[in-house]
Amino acid sequence: MNTLHDADASASALRAAMTDELRASEVVITDDVAAAFRAVPRHLFVPGEPLAAAYATNSSVLSKLDGRGVVISTVSAAHIQAVMLEQAQVRPGMRVLEIGSGGYNAALLAELVGADGEVTTVDIDAEIVDRARACLDATGYDRVRTVLSDAHHGVAEHAPYDRIVVTVRAWDIPTEWTDQLADGGRIVLPLRLLGLTRSVALDHISTPSGEHRLVGDDVRLCSFVPMQGAGAHAEQIVRLDRDRIEVRFDGAQPVDPILLRNALAGRTLQRWSGVAFARPDLLDLWLASTLPRTAILTAQQGAIDDDLVGPAARLGVPALVGPGGFAYRMKRPSSSVDGFEVGVRAHGPDAEELAGQYLDALGAWQRHHADLPRPRIEVLPADLPDVALPPGRVVDKARRRVVISWP
Asked: Among 13, 66, 68, 243, fewest CB within 10 Å belongs to which?
């Protein structure tokens, strides 16, 4: 019995089925990206994993934990890799920099750029780089260049790049990345915005004055492990209910943890908006970018089962935080709207006021964004004065000023 041949045949069938599923769900759109997924043997980049797990479209594969048991490296789910490759619009002959190595995504990029293109993948972790190198060599992608370095600084010696694809969560966008990106090039990255992570495709534009800008409106839901090294960023976290509930702020905020704990134990109310619950990826970014003081509320299932907070907190939900309470969105089945209705749950002595503000934001979403437009993201220099900024919600980073605007 030829078990090796059987395994190869099974992997080939699963790879074809995975690609077909990605095409049927319209995640893979172009023939080139489909061909790349059909060509690269994903299971050989996740040795030890069952074939079914290797070719599951919506599951990432664990690569490495740190000493505290926190995931610091994964081979991302094929679904999000497909999303980002379609966003990147990689063409034959391009030079591509991948930030964050795993091997498999670099192989997909190598298929897309072809024999005349170049792919460089960089990671801060020597073990991850060695593993990616071994997998790439074993699968015939020896032309992919692997680099051990802090990716915050890019890889200047092989620049300029037509595309930069970032596969770790970035809170900021280092100037080194845009310095190494060709004029008219594109960067695709999981950008942290107001506590939410979205994969954004941004085109590099140089103004006559020499100013570098990144602009785009292709924004997709995603989840990635955060950057290490110089690009690491610590969010402010307030923990409630024996650490089963967290309120995460994007930056340092003057917040009193005792008041938030008291609010959780105090008055609770729910209000419903009559607004249909659709496209939470866009809705949540709208709420975070239009409400005045937001955080991300997350909770363990036990706290939800005890009805301390609503089910939306399981995966994280934008919360409006006031001096003595907080409010966040809910949903429920409804016959009066299409499928589900979105509402608000509020805690604390100012629950009524906070719920009202949240409902106002939901109403504005329905009035102005019923057709679910995509927000415009502009990434500008950190020293650009307020008077020179376009209209929108300004999110200040260490190296950049990000402006989120809605049509």
From this structure: 68
| Average pLDDT score, the chain | 91
Name the residue range of residue 323's domain. Answer: 236-368
6: in domain? no
Q: Which residues contact 174 (CB under 8 A, 6 or more apart)?
A: 152, 153, 154, 230, 231, 399
Q: Is 199 a known active-site residue? A: no
| Domain closes at, from 195, 212, 231 | 231
Within its chain, how far is the Cα of 399 from the centroid? 19
* Domains of the chain: total: 3
Establish if 264 belongs to a structural domain. yes
CA distances from 307 to 272, 300, 311, 372 (A): 18, 11, 9, 31
pLDDT value of residue 62: 61
**Interval 194-203 mean pLDDT:** 96
pLDDT at 367: 86
Spatial separation of the C-alpha atoms in residues 264 and 77, rounded to whole Å: 35
Assess whether 95 and 203 both reside in one domain.
Answer: yes
Give long-range contacts, CB 8 A cutoff, 24+ apart: 16-21: 17/55, 18/42, 18/55, 18/56, 18/57, 18/78, 21/57
b/e map 204-224, b = 16+ CB within 10 Å:
beeeeeeebbbebbbbbbbeb
- Structure tokens of 67? 């000493």
Query: pTM to 2 decimals?
Result: 0.92
Residues 187, 334 within the same domain = no
Last residue of a domain, one of 205, 231, 257: 231
Instruction: Judge if 204 and 158 occupy the same domain.
Output: yes
Q: Are residues 64 and 91 in the same domain?
A: yes
**CA trace torsion 7, 9, 15, 20 (10° rounding):** -150
Helix axes 104-113, 126-138, angle to 10 degrees: 50
Tell me if 110 sits within 8 A of 97, measured CB to CB.
Answer: no
Q: Is the pLDDT of residue 239 over 50?
A: yes
pLDDT tens for each residue of 349-381: 999 999 999 999 999 998 887 676 789 999 999
- 130-151 pLDDT tens trace: 999 999 999 999 999 999 999 9
Q: What CATH number should be reported for the domain holding residue 181?
A: 3.40.50.150
Short-list 141, 192, 148, CA closest to 168: 192
Does 220 share its domain with 125?
Answer: yes
